[in-house]
Each structure stands twice: as structure tokens, then as C-alpha cells.
Amino acid sequence: MRRLLLALPFALLPLAVAHAHDHDHDHEHGSLGKHEHGVATLNVALEGNTLEIELESPAMNIVGFEHAATSDADKKTVAAARAKLEKPLALFSLPAAAGCSLTEHELSSPLFGDAEDKHDHDHDEHADGHDHDHEHSDIDADYSFTCKQPDALKTVDLTAFYKQFPATQKINVQLIGPNGQKGVESTPANARLTF
Asked: For this UniProt entry, which residues form the secretion signal (predicted)?
């Protein structure tokens, strides 16, 4: 499912190198993003009739906390968030003319009971001299769509996503499509992405 998005880190390597020089260590996780509450990362790739969307977000943005859900209220919050994330066409508005349908999706997070999340790491093992005694939980969602008319897929609107998850204040977006690649910053006031 992630064949298109696997190439994204290499395509964006120059941006990552520049970003690394501009910022100090701030809980870097995996690829290009850092764990910053209120900020998520979205990678969108369109190749042929396949659209892939990859969301990486601190759990705080999605459920309002990062600790393990032990109370009934927390468990209900996590279940409700997961149910929303399992319906990406209600979160990411795609032009109806493109005829896109979800073909595959994968959600992962320690909060969902995943044994190991790719962004979890033991902060106590950092060799940077900082005392990290807290855990960061991320929520990752990967979606693959097949679009009958990919030429009609000119935009992706994130308005519904911001409404469903209002703690998300900004999304750093990387788009790869027929017109090349670009990085944009999305906010609730600027929620429409254009390829």
C-alpha cells in the first residue's frame, strides 16, 4: 500500500537536511516531522489512478491525551476517534468527479493496543543529556484509494478533518502529483490543498 509514499522521504531529503540545520532537537520522530502538539504531518501522493494519504499526528491532537486509555471515558474517546479515522472520505473531502473509493487502510497507535508503534521510543535512552521521563504517543493512518477519474482530482479539502479534530492547529503537507511535488502548510483557515 505504501509504495508511493516510501519514495517520499527520498524526494524530500533536501528539505529534511535544511530543516535539521534550522532546528534543535525537539523530540524528532522517524521521518520529517517532529512530535509537536497541535501539528500533524500529511503525505499525499497521486500516481495513475492510485491516491495514497499518510497521516502522522500526536495522539493529543486526535484524542486529547497521550497516556494509555484506562478509564471508561478515555476508552470511549479512543474508540470514537478510531471510528472517525476509519472513514477517511468523511475527513478528507475529494472531488466527487474523481470517483475515488477507499481500497485499503491501516491505523496504528499504542492507544489502539498496538504492541509497538513505529514512533515510540524510550526517551531515557537519548544521548542528548536531556532527562525525558514521559512518553509520546502518535496516531498513524495510511489510506489507499482508487480513483476512476484521477484527472478530476485537483484538490483535497481538510475542513472536515479540522472540525472532527479541533486540537489540530496546523498540518504540514507534502503533495506529490502529476504537477510535481510541493510542501504546504495547512490550517483551519487554509484547509484546501491543490495538486
From this structure: 1-20
- Cα gap 55→109, rounded to integer Å: 12
pLDDT tens digits for the chain (195 residues)? 555 554 544 444 444 433 333 433 344 333 334 568 999 999 999 999 999 999 999 999 999 999 999 999 999 999 999 999 999 999 999 999 999 999 999 999 999 986 444 444 443 333 333 333 346 799 999 999 999 999 999 999 999 999 999 999 999 999 999 889 999 999 999 999 998
The set of residues, in sequence order, having a beta carbon less than 8 Å from that of 38 and lying 6+ positions away, is: 60, 61, 167, 168, 169, 170
Q: How many other C-beta atoms lie within 10 A of the C-beta of residue 3?
A: 11
Nearest Cα neighbor of 95 from 49, 169, 177, 155 is 155
